[in-house]
Fold:
Amino acid sequence: MARRLRLEMVADHASRDLISELPLELKVRILECLPTRDAARTALLSTHWNHVWLRLGRLALDNDFFWDIIKCSGVSIVPCKIITYILLQRVQPVKKFSLHIIGLLDPMLEQSDLDQWCLYLSINGIEELDISHWKRQYKLPLCIVSCTTIKQLGLKGLHFDCPINAPSIFPGVTSLIFSDVVFNHNVNGIVSSIPNLEKLEFKHCEGISNFKFKAPKLESLSVIGFIPAAESRWLVLHLETIKVLCLDHSSMLWEDVEVASFPTAINLQVIKLNSMKFANEKQLMGVLKLLQISPNLCELDITAKVSEDDTEDDDIKIVLRLLKDPDSCIVNQDLKILKTIKIRLFCVSTVLTHFVKMLLSKSPTLESVVIREYYFIHRQYNKVIKFQRELLCFPRASPKAQIVL
Structure:
């Protein structure tokens, strides 16, 4: 009898391992560090881990996840049913959920499926939600718009019907990212409040001007991708409150918006400009307009789009005259708080050279000018050497200004 008991104890000890004996909370943390597909495998490999997988509060479901589930199960399964099953089997709320609608899932997904999942998440404490699609086929469920627990929301490739007569939307959201989202037409004059929003990004969206809102806590606004003149006016409305503004070359074509209509961006401290083509007169004028209305600018960060210099163009000649003549330059006041200038992918051009010269002459507190050259700049080696010599000789309003090449 004693010998049998000892054998049973040895067998029980051999069936265990150090990881399986860890506290439940620690095992959940371990699974959260793994890709969702690997975390799900633990439920198939060991009964000790099945209850851990059901407590996982971070789920990222994509095409790779579904392929792995099919391989492990060895049967033909429906991805939509898998998602429903996974959500309904949770024993703790899902705090972070990411869904990429591609491949296996896309042909089978119905709008009602997406509505059902979002409703479940919205009433069970979801805090971070990311939904991505590539065909703009589905609409954002309105339950997400009114969910009070979401703090970070990322949406890609969806239609958004701006709600009518909704005094407040996305009530708990602090970070909101729209990518390839279509904002459908809304009744003019309807303005909703996003009370806690701090960061807002648009990437290649359509109909931004239909998204009318007030965000008293908004600090960072990013608009990437072409926006028509009407939406340029929409953008101007938010310049008074933000501290950080990020634009690219296609969102800077403000030729139909008079600079006199721009409000003073009194809080704007950081401007980031991506893929700027300074040989384009409209883009350069947009930059100058921004500088003109930003008296408290501290940092200017520019990624220049490499292009051939075109000093023969009549529009460029006009801009060059503005840059060269300090009395007629559109930026007629000093940038009194500007401390840092960064220019990356720098390509030597006459316009950009005079732009830097203008900034040096109008920035009395400037401390650092960092210029990172384009990696093919050796093709312009002689022009680079000439530019560097000229740059070091440019007059500087700030005695502390250091130029880093």
Q: What stands out?
A: Residues 1-14 have pLDDT under 50 and may be disordered. The two ends are 83 Å apart (CA to CA).
